[in-house]
Structure formats: structure tokens, C-alpha cells
Amino acid sequence: MGLLESNPLPRTAFASTYAPRRCGIATFTHDLAAAVGDREIVALHPPDEAGSYPPEVRHRVRRDIRADYLIAASGLNAGNAGVVSIQHEYGIWGGQDGEYVLDFARALQKPVVTTLHTVLRNPTPHQRHVLTGLIRASAASVVMSRSAANLLTSTYGVDPRRLDVIPHGVPDLPLVHPDSVKPQLGIQGGPVILSFGLLGPGKGLESVVAAMPAVLAVVPSARYVIVGATHPELVRREGEAYRRGLQERAAALGVASRVLFVDRFVGKAELGAWLTAADIFVTPYPNLEQIVSGTLAYAMSAGRAIVSTPYAYATELLAHGRGRLVEPGSPAALASAFVELLRDDEQRLALGRLAYMYTRSMVWSQVGAQYRRLFERVATTAVAAVDDIGAISAFRA
């Protein structure tokens, strides 16, 4: 860590993908940066997708161009940001397993706070090297769940004193009855089961589609709504083959008319409307190691009844009756949970209220305040260290 001017409210430089890029971490960073306040952005993007960015983006890094990372670090070192906030997920950084993030972090002469969006239970040796190297290069690291913190200490040997648990931020949505919102979306006339997010394999949506015949046999007015564009990296590789596969599966099962695809990247207002219009929100992820899910956090903030597979993040957030957990890869288990909740209004609404109350401490204004306190602590510690070095040098002189 290098020289840093004393500042009780340091400007923060966020290094991440960034809106308007269609990426969950880009959206997270945009919301976090706005909640924190004084900020500038280092935007990561594929070399052929520079795009147009808002004025707070002061630096751009072409993901696969290694030299860009050192240029961006040099620019930050010469600037007035007091802390650099790195958002880490292996896929958004260049190099093998995103290893170029280490070039960037080690070149910085400002204290680094890293937010970890992925912590693998069984990493490859190189994935472990990248993650532990980044944590060592950081003054502090943030995880969004206690399970992620426990995994880092038990499996990666990270000192728990170097970790801060700050929840995933969520919008401050009103708690309303779904039927009051459905008309504005044109979906009145029956209960809605909802998923949202960038589409791609590995999210278990096939299981929900496969559950719909059993659901409709009991609740024929139900529908399953999938809101979100296909992940841009998947579109780049194979176009819309994945979405077409889901549509063909629904048609083959005879439920195509009750499975609605909203094929676009929706803005905050429309997303809020879909969330509050849903009767049930489902995250059927087959990967039980997943340590964070922004979609789950957002749905809880809308006060929706949640049905989910028991991946790590869901198990933690939905504990104490805040949602319903079902076995992964089981359309029958999903259908059973859906039918039970759709036939019991009191139980469904009670689950939603518990989820809503739990997320009041997760609204972006509160999460931003927690990050500000962390950034101030890190900046103050860095200044004290510089002052101590200066005092020792003066004494020796």
C-alpha cells in the first residue's frame, strides 16, 4: 500500500463490469457505487464491446489485454481516490481464472477492498492461487454471507479478521399484494411463479418447466414467468439456443401457453413490478455451492414466498421459515411446493412477510453505509501506517 491523503470520506474507485453492461455484477456495482457516494469507476469489458458509459467511468480495461490493467492502476495511483473496491468473480477478469486481477491489485498504491462474489468449495489449485493472492493484496475482503466467511477460513485458511460480512444490497420495495400489481403487467387472472436474471444453463429453469404440468393439473390458472435476456457471453457463443430449448421443452409438455418469456434486460422499475406481482419466486439452482444470489435477495426484498434448492446462500437466507427448500433437480418436489403454497394464501403471504422483514437491513442505503464505514476504516489505517513510517524515517535521520 502506498501514499494516501487523509480523508474521512475517501472517494472510492470501483473496478468491475459496469452498467449499462448486462451483467449481474455490473448492476450490483452500479447500485453499490451510487449508495456509497463519491466514486469513480474502472469498467471491465470484452475487447470488442467497449460500449457507452456514464461520466463516472474514468478508466476502461479491455478484459483480455493485460497491459490495460497496469495502465488503469497507474491512473488510479495518480488520482485522488482513497480506496479501490475490486469486485471479484473469476469470469469478469482476464487471463486464466481471471488471474489478471492480481496484476491490477499488486500495482495499486492505494488500499484495496475486495468483494468476493464467488467462493468455490473445491477450487482448482490455480483458482485457489488467484483468490488467496487477491485476498493477500487487499486490506480487507467482503463476503455476503456467513457461510462464505466460514468457507474461506476453513478451506482457504484466511484469517477471519481480514473478512467483513456485508449483505447483498436490495431495493427498498413496498410490501403489496401481488394482485394489485398484475394488471399493469397484463398478467391478471391467476397466480404467477417467477424467475428472473440472465438466462443460461446451470440455473435449473428446466426443472420448473418440467414441474408445470403437475402444477396446472391442480391450479390451471397458474403461469411461470421467466424475466430476463440470455447472458451476453452465451449469446456470443451459441445465440439463443438455450432459450429455444426451454420453449421447445414447454411445448413438448403441453404447457407453452402457461410459460411466459419476457426476453429482455428489464430496468429497475419494471423489475420491481415483476417482483411485486409474483406470488412465488423460485431459484432452482442445481449448484449447491453458490454463495450469493442477487435474484434471491431481490425477491425476498419484495416480500415474495420463495421456493429454492438448498444452495449455500439460500440455506442461510431462508432459514427460520423464511422460505421453502426443496431437493435439487426434482420437478416433483418443486410442483409439490408450488401447489401447497398456491392453495394456502395465508401460508404463502406469511412466508413473504418474513422474507421482507429480514431484508430491511439489506436495502441499499444501509448496505452503502456499511461499505462507507469499511472504506473509512481502511483509509484511516493506511494513513496511520504512512504516518508511522514517516515518523520512523524522521527519527532515524
Itemize the secondary structure elements and their pairings:
Layout: E1 12-16, H1 24-36, E2 39-45, E3 57-62, H2 66-78, E4 83-88, H3 100-107, E5 112-116, H4 125-136, E6 140-143, H5 146-155, E7 163-165, H6 182-185, E8 192-196, H7 205-218, E9 223-227, H8 232-238, H9 241-252, E10 259-262, H10 268-277, E11 280-283, H11 294-301, E12 305-308, H12 312-317, E13 324-325, H13 331-342, H14 345-358, H15 364-396
Parallel strand pairs: 1-2, 1-4, 2-3, 4-5, 5-6, 6-7, 8-9, 8-11, 9-10, 11-12, 12-13
Structural class: alpha/beta
Q: Tell me the strand order in the biggest sheet.
A: 3-2-1-4-5-6-7
Highest-level CATH class of the largest domain: Alpha Beta
Using the 3D structure, state the CATH architecture of the largest domain.
3-Layer(aba) Sandwich
Please provide a brief summary of the model:
This protein is of the alpha/beta class and 397 residues long.
What keywords describe this structure?
about 400 residues, alpha/beta, Rossmann fold, 7-stranded parallel beta sheet, 6-stranded parallel beta sheet, 15 helices, disordered N terminus, disordered C terminus
